[in-house]
Amino acid sequence: MGKAVDLAIVLAAGEGTRMKSSLAKVLHPIAGKTVIHHVIDALTPVSSQLCVVVGAHREAVESHISEIAPSAKKTFQAERNGTGHAVQLALADTNAKGCVLVVAGDTPLLRTSTLTEFIEAHLELKSAASVLTAVLPDPFGYGRIVRDELGAIISIVEERDADEDQKQIDEINTGVYLFDISALRDASKKLTSNNSQGELYLTDVISLIKSSNQVAVAIQSNDFTETLGINDRAQLAQCAAIMRDRLNDEYMRNGVSIIDPMTTWIDAGVVIASDVTIYPGSAIHGTTSIAAGAVIGPRTTLVNVSVAAGASIIESRVTDAEVGPGAAVGPFTFIRPGTRLAANSKVGAFVEMKSATLGEGSKVPHLSYVGDATIGEGTNIGAATIFVNYDGVEKHHTVVGSHVRVGSDTMLVAPVTIGDGAYTAAGSVITEDVPAGAIGVARGKQRNVLGWVLRRRSATKSAEAARDAGATELGARD
Ligand code: UD1
Ligand code: MG
């Protein structure tokens, strides 16, 4: 089915000087997607073809466009002679007919629904040129909409070219336009650079189209926040906060409890089921999905994590991992890529895991490092156990069976295998396999030197306490 608009032109050739960044302005991220990705997502449902005008940071912007919109045409604007010049080049690159939408690549909050309403009004008014406008509390810096006494648009005047009266106008040009392509082609040929910046202004086509006796209209949008453009880092943060609120509202309406929306940052595209609770200070990124009843946070960061129903992740950081149903993570746990936690398993405080599988109901409750390991079901890894996976050159794998009891402070020097149902003695350095059902003991035998403190530390509180407890200086020779 044909879409309402035949061609959409996205202007993204500008330098973005005010960002003071080595990264192109339109490639800065908001809610897990680049600024221009948001723009393209908003207009794709309404437009059959897409053309992006690129210039500054050309290679980076072009390769990003190829990734997110492979069929988009890229027009190169070598010299930035203004928005009118950019559109001239895009038109020279296409034989599209019908209706064209022009938007700036730096307005990530624009919604498809607003574009749809704008298109409907444009068609209904049989307009040859329509500009979407907004009333701003602080219109400084934007082009102003000059209307006649009947309210019809006369022209758009840039801040730098405006007189004192025009600067008082609070209705601004959002930089979103619809045109009849042939009217735009004709008018764009007549543009001149007779303005304070010496550039070709796209905004001038409005009065040019009017003077050729075609209909040009200004259509006001009712949500000015949608049309905010990003020119510097402060506006980037402002747009990111608006996007955060928008996404959080949507998640909450879908049944997610977000305790403190102001400090909860969730990327667009994260999937969260109903009855999930998210506590303050949490950030949820990438391809993360969270199933019903899970509890996340406070102060938890998830990146590309699959969280199953009823799991809990508290005060932790988890990346590229799977957390099974009912599994418990945290507080203060660091789960790195390639970790899979099976149902009802537990990973507790000050534990780091990487490339490791923890079987159903198994636990690593305290102070451990588990790297490159496969652990069976119902196994307990004692506090402060370290999986010694690195020999200084290569990483090696450890296998721990089911219903194993690894004693506290065990070193499992990989590669090594602990059989099903085996134990290790606390404090062991395990360098050889422990067969099923055996206990591996690998530590020095204990020796007590009686009376040592009384002889060697006689003036201390320890010696005094020992004496009070009945100890004497007599003992084995030391
Ligand atoms: C422009 C409008 C202004 C409007 C504002 C809305 C003009 C003359 N002015 O001003 O009326 O209120 O947007 O945000 O159009 N670009 C190119 N090639 C160029 C110049 C710009 O591709 O030669 C691109 C930029 O990358 C940007 C967009 O066009 O995405 C707008 O350019 P920018 O310089 O930001 O224009 P504004 O001064 O914001
Ligand atoms: Mg701008």
SSE layout:
Elements: E1 5-12, E2 29-30, E3 33-34, H1 35-43, E4 47-54, H2 58-68, E5 73-76, H3 83-92, E6 99-104, H4 112-124, E7 129-135, E8 144-147, E9 153-157, H5 164-167, E10 171-180, H6 181-189, H7 205-211, E11 216-220, H8 233-253, E12 257-258, E13 265-266, E14 271-272, E15 277-278, E16 283-285, E17 289-290, E18 295-296, E19 301-307, E20 312-313, E21 317-323, E22 328-329, E23 334-335, E24 339-341, E25 346-349, E26 352-358, E27 363-366, E28 369-375, E29 380-381, E30 386-388, E31 398-400, E32 405-406, E33 411-413, E34 416-418, E35 423-424, E36 429-430, E37 439-440, H9 452-456, H10 461-468
Parallel strand pairs: 1-4, 1-6, 4-5, 7-11, 12-15, 13-16, 14-17, 15-18, 16-19, 17-19, 18-20, 19-21, 20-22, 21-23, 21-24, 22-25, 23-26, 24-26, 25-27, 26-28, 28-31, 29-32, 30-33, 31-34, 32-35, 33-36, 35-37
Antiparallel strand pairs: 2-3, 6-10, 7-10, 8-9
Helix pairs in contact: 3-6, 6-7
The site of uridine-diphosphate-N-acetylglucosamine (UD1) has 27 residues, from strand 1, helix 3 and strand 10.
Write a structural description.
With 478 residues, the chain is of the alpha/beta class. It has ten helices and 37 strands. Helix 3 packs across helix 6 and helix 6 crosses helix 7 (205-211). The protein has three domains: 5-227, Spore Coat Polysaccharide Biosynthesis Protein SpsA, Chain A; 244-440, UDP N-Acetylglucosamine Acyltransferase, domain 1, CATH 2.160.10.10; 447-478, no CATH class. The N and C termini lie far apart (94 Å). Helix 2 links the parallel strand 4 (47-54) and strand 5 (73-76). Uridine-diphosphate-N-acetylglucosamine binds next to strand 1, helix 3 and strand 10.
